[in-house]
């Protein structure tokens, strides 16, 4: 991995409008993709794309946040900020995968869940919380890949996985650097300084144990050589999925639960004599 880029530079690459998105990964890595829409409760949310596909001949469930690459797509997908209907759709597909024993692959690229009044009124917080709870109990393999931005509970709602993979120039954090700077210093202009403090880059998060593996990108970012990126992602998913398929279903759920419970735990302090 290249250590020459600053955290702020990695954020800029992660947000590049031509960076490969969920549609690109589905086209490159899967066959026979069949999209499934709607949460069966309220409506359809284009900010989350999901369905069934074949991965090297094996049926899998694929779910990912969707931003779009131009203004028209951005508006249609709410700039990749899902509403509660999107998270409930994702949960519906996960429950279906659990029923039929299909591995789940999620692709995360979002600045966060949509914080609008209407989304909150329809249960945004509850929808995210329920995903966290039910993902922790799944007995099928779950692999999450952070491809661009992974911010806040909006990202974590698809990120409770047995293996959390991250592209080299992706970022993963509790909120955006601009939001962090606004809260901490009341000055969003200090976002580059915030990037350094937040430990949001792939090397930082690998060292902290938040992610399990970092996937190399071509120099300058995935958007400059997508085919190379797809090959690297394919190799990583194939390897981790092969390992997970060897595990017993009950062990997958138990190990996943403990994996996330241990995150951020500090060693107990000894009492001074």
From TrEMBL:
One of its GO terms (molecular function) is acetyl-CoA carboxylase activity. GO terms for cellular component: acetyl-CoA carboxylase complex. Keywords: ATP-binding, Cytoplasm, Fatty acid biosynthesis, Fatty acid metabolism, Ligase, Lipid biosynthesis, Lipid metabolism, Nucleotide-binding, Transferase. Its EC number is 2.1.3.15. It holds the Pfam family ACCA. Component of the acetyl coenzyme A carboxylase (ACC) complex. First, biotin carboxylase catalyzes the carboxylation of biotin on its carrier protein (BCCP) and then the CO(2) group is transferred by the carboxyltransferase to acetyl-CoA to form malonyl-CoA. This is Acetyl-coenzyme A carboxylase carboxyl transferase subunit alpha.
